[in-house]
Specification:
There is one protein chain. It contains 2 helices and no strands. The chain has about 70 residues and is an all-alpha fold. The longest helix is centred in the first third of the chain and has 19 residues, at about 5-20. The termini are far apart. It is found in: Cell membrane. Keywords: Cell membrane, Lipoprotein, Membrane, Methylation, Prenylation, Transducer.
């Protein structure tokens, strides 16, 4: 590898590390509590928890047309 490519790689690594150092960290217990609260607040909108009306279900089996 050339020295120019190595310098560019190291510069991008330093920039990435600077970005990661600026990320606010919180305790896992706090993150879990916030995630649980978010899930409870949005449960009424979750299609996996609610029944989807048959008429608006895009994944239903297509109806077949029978000719008499």
């Amino acid at each position: 590898m050339s020295s120019g490519a190595s310098v560019n790689t190291l510069q991008s690594l330093v920039e990435q590390l600077k970005l990661e150092a600026g990320v606010k960290q919180i305790k896992v217990s706090q993150a879990a509590a916030e995630l649980q609260q978010y899930c409870m607040q949005n449960a009424c909108k979750d299609a996996l928890l609610l029944c989807v009306p048959a008429g608006s279900n895009p994944f239903r089996e297509p109806r077949s047309c029978a000719l008499l």
